[in-house]
Write the structure tokens for this entry.
Amino acid sequence: MSFIADKQTLDDLSLLGKFNPGSVFSIFNKVKTRGAEKLLDAMFLHPLSDVEAINNRSAIFLYFNDHPTGFPFDDKQLERMESYLDEGGDGSYLLALWELSRKKIAALLVRDDTYELALTGIDSSIAILEACEQLLRQLEKEGRDKDQPWKKWSDIVRTIITDVRYKQLNSSSRSLLDNVRLHHMLTGTFRGQLKMLLELIYETDLYIAVAGVARAKGFSYAQALPKDRNKLEAKGLRHPGLDKGVANSLFFNTATNVLFLTGANMAGKSTLMKSTGILLYLAHMGFPVAATDVQFSLLDGIYSSVNVPDDLNKGYSHFYAEVLRVKKVAEEVATGKSLFIIFDELFKGTNVKDAYDATLAVTEAFTNFTNCFFIISTHIFEVGHALNNGGSQISFEFLPTIMQNNVPQYTYKLQKGITTDRQGMIIIENEGILNML
């Protein structure tokens, strides 16, 4: 079963978006090749759902984190090599001879450029193999060529560059027959291995880039645990887009599966909730996370309700859209899935009395689903007092506000308990709105 995160959740957490500089994708998109960018996009779209696969990928990123490596390949040459190999051949020398001879004749007679394109493909492939050979020698010198992230790549490179035919033909001046033999080798004999080599080069580009981001930003690598451990422990958690973000720690398990979060506007509730959702999504990808230490049990998915829009076409008000979102989550939770749920300001689209009653009822109901974890934030702190009956199922924490000369200051640091902070009118008065009116 694949990891669940619907469009609403992906949008709430700003996870995707190649052209969105504020997306989590953009934070990690420091790759040098289009092939690696496509691979990065695929990884973001398909988080992993297997503990071993997650931890194995994390281990590869950690390897490149601890062993910084330059990327010695040219993107344009890689693209030309890929296009050349995609055009392919059937492995027959006679057909390779016919194909290249025909293209050369066409080039002489009608100035057709297909022969030059074929030569460009051959030259680009050789240039990439030469770069591979140089990198391999460096890795051999360092004793790292047999390390797990490199072994498959180095085995393929050795097979090709030590082949007698390749060594004989790889020269600066080549005849038509030399080009035919090289064409036959590259698009026939070694085509499958070369295509695999390209994939491994793109993977390496991605590993180097992501590990570089993690090293620069001080990210760490989460440890995935089996689902039945039912645990999330995150220390030093912050938003990956904030280099100087204030760190917090969170803990969930079967006995305490709901975090009831209070705090004034701008105190940092939404950022904390998004940070947690992003952390879990990246952790299920096997990617580095913005925290100092993380252990998490495998989940089936994440659902969030942060920026729920109304729907003018369907005639849905903001409140009704919120209700439908809660219904969707309740249906998923009731199926027995292990999910992480984020509700930011439940039922803010209705009056305070209905919002109080609904938030109280929904939060109480969610405590029964101990295989799921919930963060529920609200301004209606009275709900917290009604829920706080001495049990351990709900953890009550808040983000405080400190008043200095009638100006609110925020620590962004979690504290135990329930806050009654409400500074909305103070902010309105400080902005001079009432005086304008």
Observations:
- The two ends are 57 Å apart (CA to CA).
